[in-house]
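Hello,

Our lab assistant flagged a job as stuck in the queue for most of the afternoon. It eventually completed. Since we weren't sure the result was trustworthy after the delay, we are filing this so someone can double-check. Below is the sequence as submitted and the structure that was eventually returned. Let us know if re-running is recommended.
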Amino acid sequence: MNKTVKVMLVEDHPEYRDVIDLALKDQPDIELVSQVGSSERALQILQKRLNDNVPDLVLLDLNLPGKSGLEALPLLRSCCPSAKFIVLTQSDNESDVLCAAQLGASGYLLKSSTVNQIIEAIRTVAEGGALLGSGVAKYILSRLQSRLSSVELQDALSQRELEILTLLGEGKLKKEIACQLNISTATVATYIRRIYEKLHVQNAPAAINQAYRAGILPCDPKGDPPDHHNDL
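-- returned structure --
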């Protein structure tokens, strides 16, 4: 790299700050110019320029006392618009990752990352790149694949098949579905057979459970699909 990357660390655990401090001291192209235990203190430094060394990059924890990292991120960016931000946290919550990205973070690492991974992330982001830690990337990819599978599964079913699957999910029998949709019981049976074939299942409970897992049918407030004992 052509210049030394000046880093601010916003982290409330002294022991973890010491770990980062020790790791960065050995890097000729990275300098830890300030380390603080709260977002309020970081804002104070950047607003009043209490430290002459304005950071090129900020390592920001999310779970901070007082104002959280996510709450502080847009304020920190407004104080130091030229700085890059890497979230360094224990949270692999999808909403935290997406929110941090929307608020302008260029990187998201878990604290389980090695010091070498953190150092390389600093260099990558400082050079204009973006980075998700391997643990976070796998998590997001898994969620994305799950969502894609849900969309593919939903697209595989016709509108009528989705209607019937929904009614099955409500615990209705074939004759009740036929009456509600104004079609014959035999027609309902044909649709149900097609649903089983498309979902690769053998019976109604299996079809319903798969639909809940894929997100086609909404879970109840407790997050679990209802029990179904209908003999379809």
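-- support follow-up --
The delay was a queue issue, not a problem with the job. The result is valid. The first helix runs from residue 14 to 25. The chain has two domains: 5-139, 157-214.
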